[in-house]
Write a structure and sequence with these properties.
The protein folds into four domains: 145 residues, no CATH class; 116 residues, 2-Layer Sandwich (Beta-Lactamase); 191 residues, Rossmann fold (3-Layer(aba) Sandwich), CATH 3.40.50.300; 82 residues, no CATH class. The protein has 24 helices and 19 strands. It binds zinc ion.
Length: 581
């Protein structure tokens, strides 16, 4: 606990006298309360006085976290331990003066005033420059206050959400999911593509009542576009922007009714942050060269494909951002994305939803034809309308960038035809330029990943279950043996996901790596498309040294960067013949 002592040296700022007097009066009143009937009034009294003075009451351990104690960083762990150990017996009231002198104070009212835990908390709060007083309280009174349902003030709801948002940004979460099922709730964060449960400092989930209040806050108060009235029985969409520690944060929120409750989804991103370069994204040198060549062309279509969450729009942004200053001046770029994930200075970002809501697709297509542009970004080809927009732009001699859901690069032409692009256009040399197919695969944490050989040894050493065959273990063993064989065949230092450590926040992964395949459209490619000879096309490409997505993924597996289990789950089996070719 020595690391906590530094706070003691700090001189606490003086709290205005009127707050000190109020606090002492309140403490006296609370300490003298014994009868059960009076206790409810005390709780109410705290809230009422708190409201009048612009003060934040802390009545439960959860409140401690909402009230901004969390930014203490690592020392927060000690506070958490304290709440877990004596959480049933403490009451803390924080004071924030309405005159905004920046001075803050806290009374800890506890049945264990002399305990080392309480001393720890005192030090923590004093380190923040707070004035702290500890007062003895009767156990029954405190226990009663702990059982109250949470009913937060509007300011507290906002603060709760902002703390969650801060935590999400710190952990690089892309989405927050609130899930309410009857009187049970769960909050999860999507980090590096995977869902992680979010708990309060005491290990409990955000209460149902608080999630409902957050829903109200998001739609009724924060939303700038979309639905402005929170209801839980129908799907809603809305968007907003806010600031967290001087960083602009864009939010898009939606709801889904569940038969037992509802979900609230919040997508979180930083529109002003620097976009990743093509290299940082993980494209190989050859792939970067293809992309740069394609974006320099005056007309044609560049198509990025892959499932949801494969980084397609991030790639579009990186590609636009890779242009030289000269290109930025020379060419006019109009982007139709929904939502706009990164705002680029040299790009006109048009909100598709706003235009389509007003005037329908005709208005949008009319606009596209009238707007004088060189490069157009059309978020996604998903229906006949977008397909026809791409055709119009191409025949008007403009360069287009777009995305598509397709499972491999050679199926892009078929997929486009399914959506309504004419076959004769697909084989037109002025149309398709470059086809890309990609996935994002979790990157192993360098500090806790485990060598495949060691993982296999550990599994073999594990004591067999005495209650019959252990199917889970047998399945794992089988998979690891298979990978072990493959690693001998392909070579390299194969690693798998470890138990988690401080570096990776206990998840075993630190980021995501892009793996991809590309086809540059030439006369040969168009011949195969004309004949619809997909097998022949693949054979031809492989014969000329083309490297598909398996190769790219396998390279990373051999370097110990990706877990073969993830690659097989997200890309394709590693032992497919073409992977070894
Ligand atoms: Zn780790």
């Amino acid at each position: 606990m020595t690391d906590l002592q530094d706070g003691q040296g700090a001189t606490p700022k003086r709290l205005p006298d009127r707050f000190m007097a109020w606090g002492r009066g309140l403490v006296d009143k609370l300490s003298s309360t014994t009868a059960d009937g009076v206790e409810a009034d005390e709780d109410d009294y705290i809230r009422r006085v708190a409201r009048e003075l612009g003060v934040h009451p802390i009545l439960t351990p959860e409140d401690l976290k909402y009230q901004g104690v969390q930014p203490l960083g690592d020392r927060h762990r000690d506070l958490q331990k304290w709440i877990n150990r004596v959480g049933g017996g403490n009451l803390c009231i924080r004071i924030r003066p309405a005159d905004s002198t920046g001075v803050q104070g806290c009374w800890i009212i506890t049945d264990k005033p002399a305990s080392p835990e309480v001393e720890t908390v005192q030090n923590l709060l004093r380190a923040k420059g707070w004035e702290v007083e500890v007062h003895p309280a009767k156990r029954s009174m405190v226990a009663s206050a702990m059982d109250r349902d949470l009913a937060l003030s509007p300011t507290e709801v906002e603060e709760t959400f902002r703390n969650l948002l801060r935590e999400s940004l710190r952990r690089n979460a892309s989405d927050i999911h609130f899930e309410v099922r009857g009187d049970q709730s769960q909050t999860r964060l999507r980090i590096n593509g995977e869902m992680q449960v979010y708990s309060l400092a005491n290990g409990r989930p955000l209460p149902v009542a608080v999630i409902y209040q957050i829903g109200n806050y998001l739609f009724n108060r924060l939303a700038k576009r979309g639905a402005r009235q929170f209801v839980t029985n129908q799907p809603l969409n809305a968007a907003a922007q806010t600031n967290i520690d001087d960083v602009t944060v864009a939010l898009r929120f939606a709801t889904a009714p569940d038969i037992r409750g509802y979900d609230i989804f919040v997508r979180v991103w930083k529109p002003d942050s620097d976009s990743l370069t093509l290299e940082e994204l993980g494209y190989s040198l050859d792939q970067q060269r293809y992309l740069r060549e394609a974006i320099a062309k005056p007309y044609g279509v560049i198509v990025f494909s892959g499932p949801t969450g494969s980084g397609k729009s991030t790639s579009l942004t990186a590609l636009l951002d890779s242009q030289t200053d000269n290109d930025r001046v020379r060419r006019k770029i109009i982007s139709l994305e929904e939502p706009v994930e990164r705002e680029l200075e040299h790009v006109t970002h048009v909100s598709v939803n706003a235009i389509v809501e007003e005037g329908g697709w005709k208005a949008l297509l009319g606009g596209l034809n009238r707007w004088d542009s060189n490069i157009n970004v059309l978020g996604e080809i998903k229906d006949a309308e977008t397909a026809s927009a791409i055709q119009d732009l191409a025949t008007a001699g403009k360069l287009s960038l777009t995305t598509l859901h397709a499972s491999n690069v050679l199926s892009i032409p078929t997929r486009m035809e399914d959506l309504g692009v004419e076959h004769k256009l697909l084989v037109d040399p002025n149309f398709l330029l470059l086809l890309v197919n990609q996935r994002l695969v979790p990157e192993l944490c360098p500090d806790c990943k485990i060598g495949l050989g060691k993982r296999l040894d550990d599994l073999l050493a594990e004591k067999r279950s005495e209650e019959g065959p252990d199917i889970a273990r047998a399945t794992k063993l089988h998979a690891m043996r298979r990978f072990s064989d493959l690693s001998r065949r392909f070579g390299g230092d194969w690693q798998v996901r470890g138990p988690g450590c401080e570096t990776c926040d206990g998840t075993g992964i630190i980021s995501r790596v892009l793996v991809g395949e590309m086809v540059w459209m030439d006369d040969d490619a168009r011949t195969f498309i004309r004949k619809r000879d997909w097998g022949g096309w693949r054979h031809h490409l492989e014969g000329s040294g083309w490297r598909d997505i398996h190769h790219h993924a396998l390279e990373h597996v051999r370097a110990g960067r990706l877990d073969p289990v993830d690659v097989e789950r997200l890309v394709a089996p590693l032992d497919e013949p073409e992977a070894g070719a």
